[in-house]
Design goal:
Length: about 240
């Protein structure tokens, strides 16, 4: 069985957390023989990188911002792969460019056009865990692009769509709620939600899943699960 897992910035926010994720993935290998992991930049790294650029100018060149921001996810994939390999779980990391995540559109707001999944498929056959950088791709002139803030969700769902498998998004909330649980303590968790409903929620500003990723999930009928890190099955399923 095949699965795509996605870990957001909070979930990979420290080396200890990355280590825990690695142990969890090792265990999951008993149930899924083919695992692809998509990760975001650690914690607030993307914001910190943006701050660095603003030291020089209020309007930094967008191509260079994409170049800069892409290192956040690149750090995460390398660290997670090192952690996995160190516990005897063979893993290999790839940037968006390396796995041919071709994009079109503007820097900082690019959209995925195609993913060349051959490389991923061949590594999965070798029983390796494939760790892919979220949020980034490469455009027709070979420049690094990014997909817009929160874009790692899109990478994960698009990959699951292309690989024909389910996608599990692990984040800092344990599912989708009727309202923002941080603002309203009476908000209730939703066990199952349709793509259309989820799309409405994301469009109206719910931060739990990025809007574009929900649309891609709907288009390719990707079964999506949203939950808290590390194997807690009690989250929200997005279904047809
Ligand atoms: N690191 C990027 C961001 O902070 C992408 C992501 O987290 O999905 O927006
Ligand atoms: Mg995020």
């Amino acid at each position: 069985m095949r699965i795509v897992l996605k870990y957001g910035g909070t979930s990979v926010g420290s080396l200890e957390k990355i280590q825990k994720i690695a142990s969890y993935i090792k265990e999951l290998k008993n149930s899924f023989n083919e695992i692809v992991v998509v990760v975001s930049a650690m914690g607030k790294m993307t914001d910190e990188l943006l701050n660095k650029a603003s030291f020089f100018t209020k309007e930094p060149n967008k191509r260079e911002i994409d170049m800069l921001l892409s290192i956040g996810e690149q750090q995460s994939i390398a660290l997670l792969s090192i952690a996995l390999n160190s516990i005897g779980c063979e893993a290999i990391s790839y940037t968006g460019t390396q796995v041919g995540i071709e994009t079109f559109g503007d820097h900082g707001d690019s959209q995925i056009k195609n993913i060349d999944i051959e490389k991923i498929e061949s590594k999965l056959k070798e029983q390796k865990i494939v760790v892919v950088a979220g949020f980034q791709g490469v455009n027709s002139v070979g420049d690094i692009t990014t997909l817009g803030r929160g874009g790692s969700d899109t990478t994960a769902v698009a990959l699951a769509g292309r690989l024909g498998c389910q996608c599990r998004i692990y984040t800092d909330v344990d599912g989708v709620y009727t309202e923002d649980p941080k603002k309203n303590r009476l908000a209730k968790k939703i066990g199952k939600i349709s793509y259309d409903e989820m799309e409405k929620m994301s469009a109206s500003g719910a931060k739990v899943m990025e809007l574009r990723s929900v649309k891609i999930g709907k288009e390719y009928k990707v079964p999506i699960f949203i939950g808290e890190s590390l194997g807690n099955e009690d989250g929200t399923y997005i279904v047809d």
